[in-house]
Amino acid sequence: MPQLWFERSLLPDGWAERVRITINGATIAAVETGVDPGPGDERHGAALPGLCNVHTATASSAAWPACPNAAAGPTTISGAGAR
User: Fold this and answer.
1) For the chain, which residues make up each domain, given as ranges?
2) What is the pLDDT of residues 30-61, one digit of tens each?
3) Which residues contact 69 (CB under 8 A, 6 or more apart)?
């Protein structure tokens, strides 16, 4: 199984030093902290959890016909400080 070694990694409990991640197919099989790199480890500086790309490039709510507010048009902000 491939193993990745990182000088530091952001884990659920915070930053950890000297981290080895073992991969089994498309799954993380093990995470070890405080270990030295092994001879076959692929070495890296830092690891962060993957982030999803969930942005949209559209500026129109009309592009989202399933959204209940899409037909209502733009929203107007009113109240204190509104002009």
Assistant:
1) 1-45
2) 999 999 999 999 999 999 888 777 766 665 55
3) 61, 75
Q: How many whole angstroms separate alpha carbon 15 and alpha carbon 8? A: 7
Q: CA–CA separation, 24 vs 3, rounded Å?
A: 9
**Residue 77 CA to chain centroid, in angstroms?**
32
Report the distance separating Cα 33 and Cα 12, nearest Å: 13
Q: What is the pTM of this model?
A: 0.60
Element holding 36 (H helix, E strand)? none
CA–CA distances in Å: residue 80 to residues 43, 74, 75, 77? 55, 19, 16, 10
User: What CATH code is assigned to 1-45?
Assistant: 2.30.40.10
